[in-house]
Amino acid sequence: MELDGKRIVLGVTGGVAAYKAAHLLRLLTGAGARVQVVMTESATRFVTPVTFQALSGQPVFVDPWDARMANNMAHIDLSRAADAILVAPASANFLARVAQGLADDLLTALVLARDCPLLVAPAMNRQMWENPATRRNMATLAGDGVLCLGPAAGAQACGETGEGRMLEPEALLEALCAFFTPKVLAGRRVLLTAGPTFEPIDPVRGMTNRSSGRMGYAIAQAAARAGAAVALVSGPVALPAPPGVERIDVETALDMHREVMARAGAVDVFIGVAAVADYRPAQVAAQKLKKELGGPPVIELVHNPDILAEVAALPNAPFCVGFAAESEQLEVYAERKRQRKNIPLIVGNLIQDGFGGEANRIILFDAQGAHPLPVASKAQLARQLVEHLARLLEKR
Ligand code: PMT
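A: This is the predicted complex of the input protein with PMT.
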């Protein structure tokens, strides 16, 4: 999981968005993090420590004089045991106190005593956020190396609308995962395809395949977290775009071909994960085919362009990564495909392993040979692929 082994102090301060911190805690522990919650006194007016204790499986700390720590130095022990401190929601008052270096409660004291990164997710009324005092405090915090996540704009609990909403827990989880991801693709531009294509036969029918888009979307997310600027040309799938990824929706192989070729000359890496239809109906009927008009129709098919092969043949071709979905003899067919398409890296997977589900089993084939990876989630495999890709790019 993304945050496996990471130790996070989740600071919760007094604001309505404190109720969302409970969901954030679930997401963090679900991603493998070990989370220690520290609340300010005013946060306990919004949500009780019992909720956070139940969700984290850890005692919650509020009071700087809490005697549960053997040495009675919770502010030191808790901050030393953390890989990062995330304060969400971070109120205007809390941010002001941290900017001034105050240590007048447990949370500010452990923030002052920290030797790990501090991330804050501000949440406050829009006027409080825009107030020159808050602006000064945020500038001070940025200068001190504090990472500010958000805030977002929108409807506020007070009934006003503007900037000051805490980022949603899912966005905060994503930001934390990205924060911990080594930036092995920093400065690289990556173009991907994902999902199936849909080749229409008539206004209601068409030919498609079982690709869910999960593998391609996971790679897009892993590449973005690793610091790349990512554009994702996607066939029809039911997945949200990964945060920070530019998504271009297409339907047919010809649409995908057009969108990829318009961008391929300006990227460093092209990864073809899409299950592109090799053929399309030669004619698309303008009206619905009627079964009353004789027997079953005979549909003539014509070849679609091979997008990956065309990108690899560009005079200034990006580093090309292909996928090979095979039903048998994966080692033989995938390596053969890599050589025929003249690409440095191909990812082989068996159709029964790769299509659909959350997990996959892949083998990476490059000039050095075959590198099998154990069965894992598509997110995990995407991270491993990105690391392998970064090493190959380094050696180039
Ligand atoms: O989407 P999921 O449900 O997560 O499933 C993932 C996956 C199984 C679709 C994925 O892991 C995968 O294997 N994608 C490639 C599927 C495929 O079409 O393989 P292929 O062997 O037919 O094509 C070889 C390569 O050429 C692929 O990189 C493909 O994107 C590319 N291609 C193929 C045909 C075509 N006309 N243009 C292409 O660019």
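Residues 79 and 119 are 13 Å apart (CA to CA). The two ends are 30 Å apart (CA to CA).
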